[in-house]
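Example complex used in Figure S2.
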Amino acid sequence: MIENLTPIQLDAIREVGNIGAAHAATVLSQLLNKRVSMTVPQVNILPLTEACDYVGGPEQPMVGVYLRIFGGAPSKMLYLFPEEKALWVAGLLINDPEKCSNLLGEMEISALKEIGNILTGAYVYAFSNFTGINMISSVPALAFDMVGAILSTILADLGEMGDFAVLIETQLTACDESVDGHFFLVPDPGSLATILEALGVKEGCQNQSGSECPK
Amino acid sequence: MPEPIRVGMSEIVVARAPRVLFTLGLGSCIAICVYDFFLKTGGMAHIMLPDSSLSSANTLTNRGKFADTAIPDLISSLQKEGAMKERMVVKIAGGSQMFNFNGLNSQVQIGARNIAAVEKIMAELGLKIVSRNVGGHVGRSVYMDLETGNVTIKMLNSPDVIL
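Predicted assembly (378 residues):
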């Protein structure tokens, strides 16, 4: 069904992504006391085999903060920041930019995880208010490594169900370019139908009799 | 020097010296390198998941994705090139757990499941894994030199490892 999303369904998913990301951007802006702009979310249907190359080359070092979303529509949430931006954000939050060297220490990791937590909270709250789907996020986990390794690991288990992943992607950028992050919401295969139903656009994949059309 | 060949996710590639096979950004995936030193022929498979039987049936179009289907395919492709099982040297890399949830969700640890599956299938096929660089929390890029059979592993914050 992932491959057969109609334009209306894609639009609807983009819109919830928009609402979620807008809340997250507002929160990030308040947290950093900076103006943060966001792109219109993209809904990308990504062949899993291309997951490694998706964000700026497989060996690009990036910091990834990863959370699982449980509840009515289980999903994954991933934030990707280039290393130096991540350190800068962490330094700002710890409020000791001197001490926050170019090393990702325990304090910095903890600060970045917390940012992931707060942003996900905002995103998920807006998402679940809009759709009426109950959603809860897990504790955050962090990895600093090649972006290909991070993305392929997160998307690997989707391979059991099919060859594609749906990525709802937003880019947040502070006006002075101090922050530059990618945000992904990746619904689990079954969750997409739940989300589409909650948005009232599930009939895009239904025939006259109301039953689901074959895949 | 011929172009190195990139082995993408869920691909299987077989080639001869002086080629180099490589794959970039391995996380929980595993690169399985099998080499016949006599023919200087080798192959690499880049698997994502341990077991095709867990997947829904219509995804089985891609046999390179699963350890239990990719490994026999890799071995038989090598045998078609004239490689002999007795001369095959097996080296594996990858299978890391990129995210640590403080002991939570063990079922999410695809890396460890991949390693176990590869070991089991190799044992069933009667092939010994001579060296490995697996597990941990690091991403890896793997280069397999078909001239020597050496497998070089590059990581972000540690020195290269040669298997």
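Chain A touches chain B through 35 residues (CB under 8 Å). Residues 7-32 of chain A form the longest helix (26 residues).
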